[in-house]
């Protein structure tokens, strides 16, 4: 068996030959386009707003536009099953959505450069608008369109791969382009803004979205999509009963009422929710899930409800079936996979907000941080991404995931050592290099593993669900990182508090490592699930 497995693995020459394929270059450019907007409505945007005298509370409120990246699974079914307006018939479903979202991001970034984050009013077509409100609305458009671009680029990457080996290469190539864009929007833009101003810098970022537009026009539409099972002949049996139609209608009414109530509650300033409200909040989704479950065994054909059954089948296939297919394909291991994904990058999320304050407290200058990040850090990231891509090709997704579960949290220990050692340029450079290599490796490992779990026919929706699980917990908890450092500082020096904090974030990765070991034993998702959509 071992010799057969070794023979099945591709040689290094075959791996390197795949790098010459046009789709690999397209993936590099699309990854770059995917990475451009995220910091422009995140950390970099906060820098610009603070320099313009905007209050911290306003900056914090505006940062919530980034939740679009964690909630993208809500509209992913639309991207999965419908063509994009204007461009869908011309370019196809995947590339049509790519181009539409890229143009929307570019237009909104240019609008942000024009409006600028300043107090006061703005007159548009004779209508006076609050300038900050208009700026925030444009930032929301960027985040929403950027999240949509991520959905469809991920789907294109997964569906364009001819094999698991090529999937690993496309994943690492995408990550490399993405990391390059983060370097531009996190480091280089600061240098540009210091010399040319923030508005011109954001206008240049809008122009850089043309890289993604060019890649979209040059790429080929993947052929892996499948029509939903509901699209059958009008007289053919559909396997749906009148009772099922009634349950689906009831589930739709309950879901709509729950969303309306949640929106109304969210608009109330005096709303106070507690743990006792949790069962009520979870009741409606549980009822909807129960009512939309497909019954076991044969059911009598619908009669009077047959005209309603087909539209409901199409809706169920777009919204419910991607999630049901995931649990059906992976069975009792599905929850373990989701838990592993949600914990995998948690140490990196928890450490992230404290990195820049840590450098400042150590006395490391901005120019030193920028220089090291753009040289040694960039080189280490490229090496980490390449190592993970080649590992995925040579050894598979699960072993690569396991190695990343060790390297990712382990890199936090380098900062723990740096906190005790002080602002030594050599130690700082080494810590930055270790962190960038390990996080580049772990990022590719997770993306590759999540890609292997998706179901052809529901690619965009399922990958959006998985990537939302990956980020949601970390984004919810990282806001407490500053409180943790302040608490650890009691009775200690600030350097000791930072050291303990970074060591603690490394220990947070232990549960994910144990879960990866369980997955390595079971080894699910070695390739894409083979069962067809229902």
UniProtKB/TrEMBL annotation:
NCBIfam families, alphabetized: 2A0125
The entry's keywords: Membrane, Transmembrane, Transmembrane helix, Transport
Location, primary (coarse class): membrane
A single Gene Ontology CC term: membrane
Gene Ontology terms for molecular function: acetyl-CoA transmembrane transporter activity
Gene3D superfamilies named in the record: MFS general substrate transporter like domains
Top-level taxon: Bacteria
InterPro entries listed in its UniProt record: AcetylCoA_trans_1-like, AmpG_permease/AT-1, MFS_trans_sf
Cell compartments where the protein resides: Membrane
Transmembrane annotation, as ranges: 24-42, 54-76, 96-115, 122-147, 176-193, 245-267, 333-351, 371-393, 400-420, 426-449, 456-477, 497-522
Membrane topology: Multi-pass membrane protein
Protein name as annotated: PAT family beta-lactamase induction signal transducer AmpG
One BP annotation, GO: acetyl-CoA transmembrane transport
């Amino acid at each position: 068996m071992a010799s057969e497995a070794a023979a099945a693995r591709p040689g290094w020459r075959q791996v390197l030959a795949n790098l010459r394929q046009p789709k690999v270059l397209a993936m590099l450019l699309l990854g770059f386009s995917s990475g451009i907007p995220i910091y422009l409505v995140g950390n970099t945007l906060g820098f610009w707003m603070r320099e313009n005298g905007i209050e911290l509370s306003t900056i914090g409120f505006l940062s919530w536009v980034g939740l679009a990246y964690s909630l993208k699974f809500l509209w992913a079914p639309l991207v999965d099953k419908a063509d994009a307006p204007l461009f869908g018939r011309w370019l196809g479903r995947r590339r049509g959505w790519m181009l539409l979202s890229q143009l929307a991001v570019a237009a909104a970034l240019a609008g942000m450069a024009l409006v600028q984050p300043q107090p006061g009013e703005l007159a548009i077509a004779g209508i006076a608008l609050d300038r900050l409100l208009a700026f925030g609305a444009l930032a929301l458009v960027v985040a929403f369109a950027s999240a949509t671009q991520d959905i469809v680029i991920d789907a294109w990457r997964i569906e364009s791969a001819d094999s698991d080996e090529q999937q690993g290469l496309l994943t690492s190539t995408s990550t490399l382009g993405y990391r390059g864009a983060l370097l531009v929007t996190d480091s280089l833009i600061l240098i540009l803004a210091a010399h040319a101003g923030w508005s011109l810098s954001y206008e240049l970022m809008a122009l850089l979205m043309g890289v993604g537009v060019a890649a979209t026009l040059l790429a080929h539409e993947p052929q892996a999509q499948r029509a939903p099972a509901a699209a059958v002949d009008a007289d053919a049996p559909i396997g749906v009963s009148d009772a099922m139609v009634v349950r689906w209608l009831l589930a739709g009414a309950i879901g709509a009422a729950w969303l309306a109530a949640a929106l109304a509650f969210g608009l109330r300033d005096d709303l106070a929710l507690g743990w006792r409200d949790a069962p009520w909040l979870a009741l409606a989704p549980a009822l909807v899930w129960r009512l939309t479950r497909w019954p076991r065994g044969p059911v009598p054909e619908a009669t009077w409800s047959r005209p309603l059954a087909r539209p409901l089948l199409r809706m169920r296939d777009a919204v419910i079936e991607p999630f049901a297919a995931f649990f059906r394909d992976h069975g009792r291991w599905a929850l373990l996979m989701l838990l592993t994904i949600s914990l995998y990058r948690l140490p990196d999320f928890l450490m992230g907000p404290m990195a820049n304050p840590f450098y400042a407290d150590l006395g490391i200058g901005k120019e030193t941080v920028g220089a090291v990040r753009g040289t040694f850090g960039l080189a280490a990231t490229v090496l980490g991404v390449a190592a993970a891509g080649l590992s995925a090709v040579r050894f598979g997704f699960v072993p690569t995931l396991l190695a990343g579960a060790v390297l990712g949290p382990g890199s936090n220990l380098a900062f723990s050592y740096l906190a005790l050692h002080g602002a030594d340029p050599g130690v700082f450079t080494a810590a930055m290099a270790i962190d960038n290599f390990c996080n580049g490796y772990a990022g590719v490992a997770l993306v590759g593993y999540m890609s292997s779990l998706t179901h052809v026919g529901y690619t965009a929706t399922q990958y959006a669900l998985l990537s939302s699980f990956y980020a949601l917990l970390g984004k919810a908890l990282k806001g407490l990182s500053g409180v943790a450092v302040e608490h650890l500082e009691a009775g200690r020096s600030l350097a000791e508090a930072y050291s303990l904090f970074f060591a603690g974030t490394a220990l947070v990765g232990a549960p994910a490592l144990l879960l990866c070991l369980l997955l390595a034993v079971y080894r699910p998702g070695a390739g894409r699930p083979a069962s067809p959509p229902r």
